[in-house]
Amino acid sequence: MTATTDRRTFLKNSGVAAAALSLKYVVPGDALAATTQPAYGAWEDLMRKKWTWDRVVRGSRGINCTGHCAFNVYVKNGIVWREEQQGEYGRSGDEDTPDYGPRGCQKGIRHSKYMYGKQRVLYPMKRVGERGAGKWERISWDQAVSEISDKIIEHATESGPDSITFAMGTQMILKKASFTAMFRFANATGIVVPETFAGVGDLPVGAYMTLGYELPGDNMAAVYKSKCCLVWAANPAATRIPDAHFFWEARYNGTEVVVISPDFSASAIHASKWLNPKPGTDTALAMAMAQTIIADRLIDWDYVREQTDLPFLVRTDNQKFLRASDFGETGERADSSFYFWDETTRKPVKAPGTGYGQHPAAPQAPRAPESLTLDGIKPALEGRWKIRTPQGKVEVTTVFELARQLCDRDYTPEKAQQITGVHADNIRAIARSFARSGAGMIYAGYRSCKWLHGDKLHRAWLLMCALTGNTGREGGGMQTTQLAKADGLLKFVFEGVGPRLKVAAISVWDYARADGKGLNAQAYGDEFANHVDTHYQQSIKNGWLPDYSKTPWKMAIMAGHNTANWRAAGTRFRETVLAKLETIVTMTPDMSVTAMYSDYVLPVAQHYERRDFVMEGRTPYVQVLDQAVPPLGESADDWVIMERLAKAISAKAKARQLPPVRDVVFGQPITHDYARLHELFTLNGKITNSRDLAQFLLDNSAGIPKTTFEELASKGFIRVEDSAGVQFGEGAPYSYQILASTRDKKPYATLTGRQQFYMDHDWFLQEGEELPVHVDPLAIKGYPLRLTMGHARHGVHSMWRDDALLVSLQRGEPDVYVNPDDAAARGVKDGDLIRTFNKLGSFIAMAHVTASMQPGQMFMFHGWDPMMFRGRQNFSGAIPTGGLLKPTSLVGNYGHIGYRTPDYVPNQTYHDHTVDFEKYTGTPNAAAASAAIAGTAQET
């Protein structure tokens, strides 16, 4: 028996070397004996042998598509030969609801080939040329780990652990064991973890502002229970391939499925109706629908009175809530106790369930068992009253009255038509269908979060849902997603160390590190830049924001994180921030632009080469990643790499008699004993691999049936507890927070204890955002076209985007969609190369001329790695949004509103910019934004 069998020999014997697996890989461990290798006479024989295999392993991919589809992975001769969907899924809800199968997409079914592609990183490498030159020295794991651990110790001791970041990317974030291991490593060393949800612009901050919980959502089967489903700023036909059938089966069952998007998308093709507002005007459209609902009195009055702050009294003199402190009360609860006007007693009464004013997670603010139940109180919603206070009489009205007046003044459907381009009759028709349906759902895409004012769109959506009693209803409400509770994760991360994890908001980090003020001035002018920066500096002075400029940034470890691809103002960030780092380490299975600009590249095991599990609330299942084959080349899973680093750091710290590293966490001085790092990381040797950690998480996570990893691996997936319906029960491993309020009448985790639509903080009032309002999206003067983007059908972020087969289904290279009129005006035809540019920079891509785009709109699917573009410059070079911080997103010390990673931080934004394009002839013309383009040209 030979120790190894290479792919060259295998494919030579098959007779199809040019058409099958790459030739450069080696199968570690026992494999075929040379004397027993099969001989294939022709390619037909190879295809027939496709239906033979040595064993079948249960697996999935575990990345941020959130599909988590269970597959059978077929292994032959030590090679992953193919995969098939595992189809034994059940259903949620009654017998009428479709089941979850089959689950899968073209990316998953392609992975058995992609994992053997030319992009694969096989060995540890060290840069020997200039960053980005692609000159590498293959080194051993011992050398890599030794040198990287030296750098960690050097930077942590000389500049502090805050000078190092360990970034989690989509290759890691939903693999439970890998993700947990990274948090444990960071917790024990003091290095900073940049959060990723808001970091890629996906955090529904407006939902958090309104509900005290950022991810309202049920499982995907809830879509089938809706009666009017507004698919808004989302494209599930392309991005939710395993789940899209719920929308179309719901439509077949009588649900009105309305797609709302500027472009005629893949989902719009299948919808009952399609509305196409101008990009960035969705809040005006939503508020016009709210105006229709209010004007037609299509309101669930009892729900509004009990569940929302719409009956709360507001002073007309200063636009502030009427509080107990206005009546002379003192104490902790005086400024967070609010009032109704009771129609029965005709006087103000204190609203039940208020008086907390702090997030329930805060240890100093335990919640008493209060209820939202009104107990005979009938709050008025309309009217004005004079109320006597110790300071004299004050006039008050209700939040509902203020919202109604706002809608009637600014957002009648006729006025919204002028803003959005959607006819008033269509606005009214959809609003009435939604309100009368009995189960109105807004299926919300993450794309809505990537606008500077996306928070107000979420607030407007939730206002529509609240007026109609849909939040918390089966088949209703704003739907995003749900992430599993972190009880098991935090138990491991904090065990024996305590909670000292530092998670940073990327948007705030980038503003400090990359001169956000200067970027805003360049793109939007000094007045705008000064306005943002004044509030940013004041927020730091108030203690509302951390100041990330204090500690120099020395080292970055990018784990499954293609930062140089997507960071807002990407080329500028790459050249002005990343380039200044002394040490960049990339842990990745595949080569990328981030790896290309790194000092060390470490090969990470692919999805079929590790043991882990994944779960996410779109489906009620825990799904396994079992190891089908050993890691290719010298790659290793994330746990192994971190364990090697921990072991090396401990050994070096002991040899050097390194004193504990000083740090400050939550304002308190602490130390990190690097000599004990390996001991701490492995729980004194109890956790030896990713399988052990996966078992720890299975054992310590509530809502997951008790099982062994081996049992999970044999089944492929198991169903979580309390998940029989389309909404998760209290015993499920997902949040019950919304249902706890709507069903069980527990106060919301907001300042008001209700769904909060009115924000009376001074900064909200100054910005005119006390209620959700439309604000025109930002534009760069002189650049008339708005470039919007979306998640791709043929990739998950940058993963699979360079796969040869999948690229061949997308014109063979990156393309950008343009309207025919805009193309004709610039002398561009379909298939021409065009150069898209603005003040910041430019990129070159193929023109995809299509009438699905509005005039003045351009569209591009995201995820294309810069390595696939001419000059290594993708769309991020023309997206100057890295400095955009809303003043209201910097507010702190206002009940539940404040900097709280990862629940509430400013999003990275991507759409608030404009561009122009020209036909690319190989030589930039005078229309280019010369200064910014010069940097790109030099790099080219």
How would you portray this structure in words?
With 940 residues, the protein is an alpha/beta fold. A 6-stranded mixed sheet has the order 7-6-23-22-21-8. A hairpin with an 8-residue loop joins strand 6 (125-127) and strand 7. Helix 4 (141-159) crosses helix 23, helix 10 runs antiparallel to helix 13 and helix 10 (282-295) runs parallel beside helix 15 (454-467). It is globular. The two termini are 50 Å apart.
Question: How would you summarize the topology of this molecule?
Answer:
Layout: E1 5-6, H1 7-14, E2 26-27, H2 43-49, E3 55-59, E4 71-76, E5 79-85, H3 106-114, E6 125-127, E7 136-138, H4 141-159, E8 164-168, H5 176-189, E9 192-194, H6 205-211, H7 222-225, E10 228-232, H8 236-239, H9 245-252, E11 256-260, E12 273-275, H10 282-295, H11 301-307, E13 313-315, E14 339-342, E15 347-350, E16 384-389, E17 392-398, H12 399-410, H13 413-420, H14 424-436, E18 440-444, H15 454-467, E19 477-479, H16 487-494, E20 502-504, H17 506-513, H18 516-524, H19 526-541, E21 555-559, H20 563-566, H21 570-576, E22 583-588, H22 593-596, E23 600-603, E24 612-614, E25 621-625, H23 638-655, E26 661-665, E27 668-672, H24 677-681, H25 690-700, H26 709-715, E28 717-719, H27 737-742, H28 762-767, E29 785-790, H29 804-808, E30 815-818, H30 820-825, E31 833-837, E32 842-849, E33 857-861, E34 914-919, H31 930-939
Parallel strand pairs: 8-21, 9-20, 10-11, 10-18, 11-12, 18-19, 21-22, 22-23, 29-33, 30-32
Antiparallel strand pairs: 1-2, 3-4, 4-5, 6-7, 6-23, 13-17, 14-15, 16-17, 24-25, 25-28, 26-27, 29-34, 30-33, 31-32, 31-34
